[in-house]
Each structure stands twice: as structure tokens, then as C-alpha cells.
Amino acid sequence: MSFKNNNAERSTVTRDTIDLEQTTGNIYESIVVLSKRANQISSSMKEELTAKLQEFASSTDNLEEIFENREQIEISRFYEKLPKPVAVAIEELKEGQIYTRKNQE
């Protein structure tokens, strides 16, 4: 997935709404597109994180293992430092990587 290697902001940035509405022509449609793409990115990130943490899961509950599993902590910290899914979606929209279409009735 490309969310690891992108130029998305890792902190809060004020966005110009005129830039966001250029691709669809309507700010509300742009927000809907961004929210749907952010949900896709978020679910993909969660599945990947769960799969990586599943490798360290044990069938027995031992308190010593819970507190001393450094690999799990490092993986979790790495995913916490990644940009938020909304920031990734906005960056993809600005770069023209998101394809949008309207349903014709």
C-alpha cells in the first residue's frame, strides 16, 4: 500500500477549500470522495497492523510477555507515526490519483 511512502502531512494543516473542489466542481462531493477513500485507507491499515500483530499473539496469557514484547510496541509506534488516512486521501486527490465518477440515472 502506498500510505507508507507518501508526502502527506503528519500534522494538522489548514487547507484551501477551493483547491479541494477543483477535481469534482463541488466541495461537498469532494468531501464525500475524501471520506470514502480515507475509510478504505483506514481499513487497509488496520488489516495490515492486525496481521503483523497476530504474529506475536500467544495462546496463553502471561503478564510478563504482555509487558515485555518490544516488537509489538515498535510496530504499534510505527503505525502511530504514519500520516492519518484523511491526510493521505487529500494528498491522493491533489495528485490526481483518485478516480471519481457520478452515477447516471
Could you walk me through the main structural features you see in this protein, from its secondary elements to its overall organization?
About 60% of the residues lie in helices and about 0% in strands. Helix 2 runs antiparallel to helix 4 and helix 2 crosses helix 5. About 10% of the residues are buried. It is an all-alpha fold. The chain has five helices and no strands. It is elongated.
**Tally of contiguous helical segments:** 5
What is the H/E order?
HHHHH
Tell me the quaternary state: single chain
User: Rounded to an integer, what's the Rg over CA atoms?
Assistant: 18 Å
Q: Give the distance, in angstroms, between the N- and C-terminal Cα atoms.
A: 34 Å
What shape does the CA trace take? elongated
> What is the total tally of β strands?
0
* Percentage of residues in strands: under 5%
The major sheet is characterized as: none
- Helix percentage: 55-70%
Q: What low-confidence regions span 5 or more consecutive residues with pLDDT below 50? A: none
Q: Overall pLDDT, averaged?
A: 82
How does the helix and strand content classify structurally?
mainly alpha
List the helices and strands and how they pair.
Layout: H1 17-21, H2 27-54, H3 63-67, H4 70-81, H5 85-95
Helix pairs in contact: 2-4, 2-5
Keywords:
0% strand, 58% helix, 105 residues, single chain, mainly alpha, elongated
Question: What's this model, at a glance?
Answer:
With 105 residues, the protein is an all-alpha fold. 58% of the residues lie in helices and 0% in strands.
